[in-house]
Amino acid sequence: MTERAALRWQEAEIAAIEPVTGRVRSFRFRVDFAERFRPGQHVDVRLTAPDGYQAQRSYSIASAPDASGTIELMIEHLDEGEVSGFFASVAEVGDRIELRGPIGGSFVWTGRDAGPLLLVGGGSGVVPLLAMLRHRDAAAPDVRALLLYSARTRSEMIAREELEARARDEPGFTLMLALTREPGGRRIDRARIDAALGALGAPAHAFVCGSNPFVSAASDLLLDAGVPPGVIRTERFGG
Amino acid sequence: MATRGFTGRRPPEATRERLPPGQYLTEDFPVLQLGPTPRIDLATWRFTLRDGAKPLKSWSWEAFEALPRTTWQGDIHCVTKWSKFDTAWEGVTVDDILADAGVAAPTEFALAEGYDDYTTNVPVADLRGGRAMVATRYAGAPIPPDHGGPARLLVPHLYFWKSAKWVNGLRFTKKDEAGFWELRGYHMYGDPWREQRFTGD
């Protein structure tokens, strides 16, 4: 697929803000591409100070493409975060924020790509995977999918209630958790990967997103378990 | 348009002068790649120079390591907004690779190719004159696999997606052919100082 049209900045109004976890807030932005992006893509956000100084960051889209006229971003407040700090404590509904997208053509999945679909997320790395799961439900509910989600605690899980409801209500979707700081918690290891592959079958697509060390470890485990490299797509944040 | 309530946290003046527009300084070395880190065996590693489909010369790891070495130190800039200062690389310049092959660049454009089937296009003028190398060492040690080792292209004056990881060849092309990201909306040239992130920038 080629996408050679210019990516223009647009002023996107914040239509809604909701808490997600203690450190993550959900923002609905009005944009002109809410129906035409692919799950897994991200946007660039640009903030401008009165003297013209600017800061830019990239955020994955959490929502699936739809007719709402909005996209959802989930922004985690990082310590000392120049842009995430603004979204944590300054941004309000009605603010207009410069934004452009959709960006990225590798870490994407649409219903036409079929399955089985293996998603492995660490922390807020689950956000683009959530977009894929929401899209699957709307556009390709027959595709089998499994999310292996690592978070520190239950309360730090992004979209926990939604994910648990999907796992309960959607045939063909399985949720596996690795809560590293709960009693008896564990990291994603080879046994968990094997269990996930056993439950799902050989994936046609595997998407791994999270911090740098998380993605390195998880994608190495997938290779060790025999998943072909060409099937695995990765996205990393932090640094 | 100023963003209501945003003041920003400006880096010190000395840092700001070295940061292209829209970039921030990081002390880490973030990793960005399409998929898992490929597992590359030095015993079978090859670097191949091609004119279109035609191979011009190919080097084993041992032969490549015997080529003249050049060091480069400076700042690198990733399109995902981070910049890293004072990185130190060692490798073989494209000039020296061409000299060892005994050829002049046959065209004005090239595609760098990686073990992960990644490609990215760079004008030959940006590869010559000591402006680019195939690097095999970073900060005095072999380049770690996550950062593109055993060998990666280094074109530090362009956004870092042009510095293809796990590089295994350079293919000269008659015209400027878009590579992996360039086909997906990223800029054909990618000058960070002109903020050429995406098509149309």
Automatic annotation (TrEMBL), chain A:
CDD domains: FNR_iron_sulfur_binding_3
Domain FAD-binding FR-type: 7-109
Gene Ontology terms for molecular function: oxidoreductase activity
Cofactor(s) annotated in UniProt: [2Fe-2S] cluster
Source species, domain of life: Bacteria
Segments forming a coiled coil: none
The protein's name in its UniProt record: Oxidoreductase
Species the sequence originates in: Methylobacterium oxalidis
Automatic annotation (TrEMBL), chain B:
Residue intervals of the Oxidoreductase molybdopterin-binding domain: 35-181
Superkingdom of the source species: Bacteria
InterPro entries reported for this sequence: OxRdtase_Mopterin-bd_dom, OxRdtase_Mopterin-bd_sf
Listed Basic and acidic residues bias regions: 10-19
Chain spans, region Disordered: 1-20
PANTHER family linked to this entry: OXIDOREDUCTASE MOLYBDOPTERIN-BINDING DOMAIN-CONTAINING PROTEIN, PROTEIN-METHIONINE-SULFOXIDE REDUCTASE
Record-given protein name: Molybdopterin-binding protein
